[in-house]
Amino acid sequence: MPELPEVEIAARSLAPQVIGRSIVGIASMDWERMVETPDIQTFYALLPGQQITAVGRRAKWILISLASGLTLTVHLRMSGRLYVVTDERVVDKHTHLVLALDNGARIFFSDERKFGRVRLLDGDGLTALDHAHGPEPLSEGFTPAELARIMRTRRTPIKQLLLDQRAVAGLGNIYVSEALWMAQIHPLTPATLVAAAQIPALHAAIRAVLEQAIRHEGSTLRNYRNGYGQQGQNQEHFLVYGREGAPCSRCGTAVQRLVIGQRSSFYCGQCQPLS
Ligand SMILES: [Zn+2]
Fold first, then answer.
1. Which of 7, 110, 126, 225 has the fewest CB atoms in 10 Å of its CB?
2. 4-131: what fold?
């Protein structure tokens, strides 16, 4: 499932292909429920003629800024892909939205599981989306002290706290598993009980795993592709994620898997003891 690095790479790779282009129309749409806001008639009415001025990211949302001041936002959720097609290929059954651009290219939103979502937001809507999320972990404002402040009041397991988009933006199952292994913190440790001395290590680990994943163009487990339709390579570099039974690269103990809140957590029982 795409997390911060994958969404960042998707946005960065879309940008040079679409900035300055105008959306001439919705060439295809077979899953209107993806559009959360506005209502579908307004969505159809507003989009044609919009020029794309920027592509960015907030949390796990791709933000496509339009010259009118509106922002087309896309959440890839489980299996979404947003990419530009410049050839004549036929729209396949998993592509539920196609935007035609003024240069003949098309933006495909493909989503096998259909959990992906689209919103066309005005300034207030964009502000609300921003406020619904915690700090960006790669931003200057996200300091060890800020992470400590977020963790101080929460008795929830650290794994679940870090998955909560209102606490910290953009993290998901993969990078939380990786960061907790790096910082040597058991995923079930209540956030308030993580030793103060471990918080700077956790902060550094979160940034390190995200930066590494961005360098490797994100992780492709199954569906993820960048804005050119290409896979990431970071899945080749996982420390613990998906490595149940394999030796921990720090101590050699077999990596374990634990299900927390219906999500798999991978950790080393030796390096990450539950104290
Ligand atoms: Zn270990």
1. 126
2. N-terminal domain of MutM-like DNA repair proteins (3.20.190)
